[in-house]
Design brief:
22% helix; Rossmann fold; 34% strand; Immunoglobulin-like; 5 domains; eight-stranded mixed sheet; alpha+beta; seven-stranded mixed sheet
């Protein structure tokens, strides 16, 4: 290759890995890596931007020391060899990071570090030349720099980085974070893998991520593993992991966020210690009812698996439990008219053996009959409801069925609903469970139904704290969701959200019946902060409140005050609801209450309606299409995202598909939501009626960069785009691009 050719194709490749290493509850200051070609050797569209084909993040946490290893594979689809640089923005608190090691294709590299001033100049120069606001969020306080060569034509380049950091522990809660968001990346990450091994010196409660749907394997009370794997994924936020270390039988952890000028938000995590010993305690006597769909569509493998799962539960009842079995098709049939003791298990097994799949689907009648079952005392009553389809007999309006079930549930039964197969009304089974204190799941036709059902039973057969009540004194806590706390089981966790006024130390009292005995109260001293610390909490709270309000509308009818609350919250946080679908997506007028609002065609075609965005009409989120039926793979994705929302493990509107809520027309950045309207990214807090002073600034002008110098924290919001209306410090900054 000639020198001239080398000079022609010489480019700058910048990979920005930004590790948020800040105090425990501080906001992220940096973002994930990105490869940039600022001066392509051939014009677009012939030039192909590089693709992040694979990213692996493997972390080992020993006590408070975390060692993180990042591996990235970048693909060059151009027919030319490229040369570049690797840049790593260093966080402000550089003392918390050490032992940097950098490899390329398995060979250790040397690198230089630059101080804040020089690093900032490099960033600003790149931003000006690229006219790319997405790079603004990378402007850190220092820089690690290394030359990368070659990037083979039509090939890949592998880069690895390893470092250590100290994760701060505050009280009984510690936090690990890894920033994933990559603004301006042309294509999603091909494969993303995060694997975190945790070795704790003290017993843990539960591992929890408020930002992602993770898999958790608790080996024992001091060792755990958290994993996340995504394909074709566009990250929208950092990865956050909380580790709890409860000192009592039950841990109550508090995470707060107090924006300037408004009331605070809090997230509460309640869980028993992982090593909480129940072996020496007598099990709580419970009542179980299994309601099984035996309609014709259950014929074959589905009815076989359902019967096997029911046999498992019957054989594993505790001696003092009682049970009932109902099967329904075109009519409702019962094993017995009342609950039976475990002495009748063998008769029940024979009854189950004779069940066959035939006829229609009479869901309303089955639920009504099941909720009539009564028993003496104050036993917990658990109903496991399983269906593979839609109601075809009797009442077929799912809203009416839900209303009838709620009215008939005089025993306050906890309903756990399972959808089997591809033709399931996911929204219905989820609302049925949520409105009756349980949880829902969807099982693919190829999945073994016995496994999730047996896992569920193993959990609910041993409740450790029932009839829960939470009280806060010292600050005023309000708007707490869920309104009614479900039972607490061994190995489970409850997540609550709410608002508060005041700050400082407060007393939190958790009251409940301990293993069915008399009530017991556990008290905790927790601090409600006065600082702006955890921006992921407000959207979670808003989703839950909107879900609650929509439930009230459905159950008790529409009223303008409730609708106004829904619209206000939905606009502020970019939540799609029946009243704001058009408002958020197109800023059109809102139809009168009572008129159904269809979702955009492009969303329904892909199966990504509001429910597959992790939202439902329950307190876990807000739905966008009442009674919608989702089928096939989309149905299973919906079920997964509903479970994520129930466990508060996903805050973004469409975390699972990574495209940004409302098909890329809404962006969530820290504590702000931006909605695309008339080619401007508009801060949801912007209201022309507020008459705030408006300041127009040209994109990439000297005034633009002076604004960042004056307000360093503003850069992450300016990274949203090149046309923005941003509310900041009592003013509205209107950023306008001439292109």
């Amino acid at each position: 290759m000639t020198t001239f050719m080398k000079t022609t194709i010489r480019t700058i490749l910048i990979s920005l890995f930004a590790m948020m290493i800040t105090p425990l509850f501080a906001s992220a200051a940096h973002a994930n890596g990105r490869l940039i070609i600022p001066a392509p050797p051939i014009p677009r569209p012939r030039f192909q931007p590089l693709i992040l084909e694979r990213q692996e993040v493997k972390t080992t946490i020993d006590g408070q020391i975390a060692r993180t290893h990042i591996r990235q594979i970048w693909r060059n689809n151009n027919r030319m060899q490229l040369e570049g640089e690797f840049l790593f923005p260093l966080p402000a608190d550089r003392a918390t990071m050490s032992d940097f090691v950098l490899w390329m294709d398995g060979k250790k590299l040397t690198f230089e570090t630059m101080e804040a001033g020089k690093a900032r100049n490099i960033y600003e120069d790149i931003v000006r030349r690229m006219r790319d606001p997405g790079l603004l969020e990378h402007a850190g306080d220092g820089l690690l720099r290394c030359r990368i060569y070659p990037i083979p034509a039509n090939g890949t380049k592998e880069i690895e980085l390893e470092y250590r950091e100290v994760i701060t522990k505050e009280g009984t809660l510690s936090k690990y974070a890894f920033p994933l968001e990559i603004r301006g990346l042309n294509d999603p990450i091909g494969t993303l893998i995060i694997d975190v091994e945790i070795n704790s010196s003290s017993p843990m409660g539960r591992i929890y991520s408020p930002t992602h749907d993770i898999g958790i394997d608790m080996h024992d009370s001091k060792h755990a593993r958290a994993t996340l794997e995504k394909s074709y994924y566009r990250p929208t936020r950092e990865f956050v992991l909380f580790m709890t270390h409860p000192q009592k039988e039950f841990g109550v952890e508090l995470i707060t966020h107090k924006p300037s000028g408004e009331d605070g938000y809090f997230l509460g995590l309640i869980s028993p210690r992982f090593d909480y010993d129940t072996s020496g305690q007598k099990p709580i006597p419970k009542d179980f009812l299994f309601i099984l769909d035996t309609s014709g569509s259950m014929e074959g493998e589905k009815i076989k698996q359902a019967k096997e799962a029911l046999r498992y539960i019957l054989r594993n009842l505790n001696p003092d439990d009682r049970f009932g079995v109902i099967n329904f098709s075109s009519d409702v049939h019962k094993f017995r008219d009342s609950l039976s003791s475990v002495s009748a298990v063998n008769d029940a097994l024979n009854y189950v053996d004779g069940l066959a799949a035939v006829g229609g689907t009479y869901i309303d009648g089955a639920l009504k009959e099941g909720l009539k079952f009564v028993g003496g005392g104050n036993r917990p009553f658990y109903i496991i409801f399983l269906t593979d389809g839609l109601p075809t007999i009797g009442e077929q309006n799912t809203d009416n069925i839900l209303r009838n079930a709620k009215k008939a549930n005089e025993r306050d039964a906890r309903v756990f609903s399972f959808g089997v197969g591809d033709d399931v009304n996911i929204a219905f089974i989820d609302k049925l469970a949520r409105e009756n204190g349980g949880a829902s799941s969807n099982v693919a036709p190829s999945e073994d139904l016995e496994i999730p059902l047996s896992n569920l039973y193993q959990k609910i057969k041993s409740p450790v704290l029932t009839d829960l009540n939470l009280d806060v004194s010292g600050v005023r806590a309000y708007d707490i969701y869920p309104k009614e706390l479900p039972d607490l089981f061994k190995g489970s966790q409850l997540i609550i959200t709410g608002r508060y006024t005041g700050s400082g130390n407060a007393k939190i009292s958790l009251k409940g019946k301990l293993r069915g005995a008399s009530s017991k109260t556990f008290s905790y001293s927790k601090k409600f902060s006065s600082y702006d610390e955890n921006t992921f909490i407000p959207p979670l709270w808003a989703n839950r409140k909107v879900g609650y309000l929509l439930n009230q509308v459905r159950l008790y009818g529409e009223n303008q005050e409730t609708i106004d609350q829904v619209i206000k919250l939905a606009k502020r946080y970019g939540i799609i609801t029946p009243y704001t679908s058009y408002l958020v997506l197109e800023d059109s007028s809102i139809p009168p209450p009572g008129i159904p609002m269809p979702m955009p065609i492009e969303m329904s075609r892909s199966g990504r309606d509001s429910f597959s965005s992790g939202r439902s009409y329950g307190e876990g989120g807000a739905g966008g299409m009442a009674g919608g039926v989702v089928k096939g793979k989309a149905a299973r994705n919906v079920s997964k995202s509903l479970a994520m929302k129930e466990e508060a493990e996903s805050l973004d509107a469409v975390e699972h598909d990574g495209e940004g809520s409302a098909q890329g027309k809404v962006q969530h950045v820290e504590d702000k939501t931006f909605i695309l309207k008339n080619d401007y990214w508009v801060d949801s807090e912007y209201d022309p009626d507020d008459k705030l002073k408006e300041i127009e600034i040209e994109f990439m002008s000297d005034e633009y960069f002076n604004l960042m110098d004056k307000f360093p924290d503003i850069s992450e919001y300016l990274a949203v785009g090149d046309n923005i209306k941003l509310v900041w410090e009592g003013k509205v900054y209107i950023i306008t691009s001439d292109e």
